[in-house]
Design goal:
- It contains 13 helices and 15 strands.
- The protein is 27% helix and 24% strand.
- By secondary structure, it is an alpha+beta fold.
Length: 445
């Protein structure tokens, strides 16, 4: 049986009330659970996105996302135990998705002006709060509470394109492990985690780190090479084992060097799937500044994060990310968390697509590059919901005489549970056109 901790030892990580977001939001406020937030110029979260809060598909019995979550947790429970057989990792899977900008970015050393902070990428409640873009946002609070080994799972929210592999809400699992000197080196007490220069002059090394956009992939200046290599070996061995646990011992994999603001060195793990390499997780040695800011000065840490939907789509052969939000019994009854070998998804929707184009002139003086497609996607998603399968920007045009710019989006409609009539599609399409026209002051072509 899985032993999941939720709010224990985490006074800063408040669970949201089971109360769903109010549909009658006042114009100047946004209500989430029992909390009311003042809107400002940064507010861009929509009622549709707020409706996903507390869905908790990752905790729904027999749901593919819950099956993946349980298998990962079980693997870590079995891999890391103390001498009494008690799992070292604790699990937190109901932490509020509302975080501060400081938590989501500053705590993780994501610099001001970084593209991931943009309104076009995130769902902001106001300039101070947003729906978390990654579960890594809780890292400092977790470590400050005294945790050395933990897993956190929950929904994350990102403004993105609309197609079979992208959805504005998905589920992420993050894990952190901190390792002290004795745990890392055993009886080799002459070895050290930190370089002598760092121990004697930490401010100098910290300045070098802070001025580096992407530190040398070999190691951070503060760490000894021995400490990094031993931690890297443990990290990669554990994650390869996890990958084989999920996909079988014969899965082809490879490591790719990369760069994240909050880990260095950093890697992505890719597997060979359907004739191509696919990333399944990102990981690395935690930036020492994060540990210092969490009150930890004597350890080295590693962290990794992965998306549950991506793994579930591979493991269960699920072709469309919208299916994870389906309540259709034809989908949900295909999976059973007690099965040792996962069932492959059998298509429940053979319903035809309906495709409509929507073209419009941008207001005079507005350039194409200044229009965010994600703003358009949010309106379409809010009106059409999951009957929209995909949206593609198919044409950009600037009139040679008037200088006005035009965009054309192709919206593909297909319901997962019934055949759509053209009349239904036309009605929804017309509503989208009307709201887009009113919201962006565009002229429908």
């Amino acid at each position: 049986m899985l032993k999941c901790c939720r709010q224990v030892f985490l006074p800063h990580l408040r669970l949201l009330s089971t109360q769903t977001p109010s549909p009658n939001l006042q114009a100047s406020t946004i209500e989430i659970g029992n909390h009311v937030f003042q809107k400002d110029d940064w507010s861009n979260v929509t009622p549709k996105i707020l409706s996903y809060i507390k869905s908790e598909k990752h905790l729904q019995k027999h749901h593919p996302l819950s099956i993946i979550r349980k298998r990962i947790v079980e693997y870590f429970y079995n891999t890391y135990k103390n001498n009494r057989g008690t799992p070292l990792f604790s699990v937190y899977d109901q932490v509020s998705p509302v975080v501060s900008v400081h938590q989501n970015f500053d705590n993780l050393l994501i610099p001001a002006g970084h593209p991931s902070r943009a309104k076009s990428d995130c769902y902001y409640i106001n300039k101070h709060y947003l729906l978390r873009a990654h579960t890594t946002a809780h890292q400092i609070e977790m470590i400050k509470s005294g945790l050395d080994n933990y897993i956190i799972v929950g929904e994350v929210y990102r403004r993105d394109e609309i197609d079979s592999t992208h959805y504005p809400v998905f589920h992420q699992l993050d894990a952190v492990r901190l390792i002290g000197k004795e745990k890392l080196f055993g009886n080799f007490l002459d070895l050290e985690i930190f370089e002598n220069d760092f121990k004697s002059n930490p401010q100098k090394i910290q300045t070098i780190i802070s001025n580096s956009k992407c530190i040398d992939q070999s190691k951070q200046p503060c760490h000894t090479l021995e400490a990094v290599k031993l931690t890297e070996h443990e990290l990669k061995s554990v994650l390869v084992g996890l990958t084989q646990h999920l996909f079988g011992d014969n899965i082809e994999y490879r490591w790719v060097d990369t760069c994240f603001p909050f880990t260095q060195p950093s890697w992505e793990l890719e597997i060979y799937h359907k004739g191509d390499w696919m990333e399944v997780l990102g990981c690395g040695i935690m930036r020492n500044e994060i540990l210092l800011n969490s009150g930890v000065s004597n350890s080295i840490g590693f962290a990794f994060g992965l998306g549950l939907e991506r793994l579930a789509m591979i493991l269960f052969d699920i072709p469309d990310i919208r299916l994870f939000w389906s309540n259709d019994s034809g989908f949900l009854t295909q999976f059973n968390e007690e099965d040792n070998r996962p069932n492959k998804y059998k298509a429940i929707s053979t319903f035809p697509q309906c495709s409509n184009d929507l073209s419009f002139w941008l207001p005079e003086g507005v350039e194409i590059d200044n229009f965010s497609p994600n703003d358009f996607y949010d309106i379409a998603r809010g009106i059409g919901g999951d009957m929209i399968e995909q949206i593609t920007l198919v044409d950009k045009f600037k009139h040679p005489k008037t200088g006005k710019s035009s965009l054309c989006f192709r919206i593909v409609y297909r319901h997962m549970e019934k055949t759509l009539t053209q009349a239904e599609v036309n009605e929804t399409h017309g509503k989208i056109a009307k709201v887009v026209s009113e919201s962006f002051n565009v002229v429908i072509r």
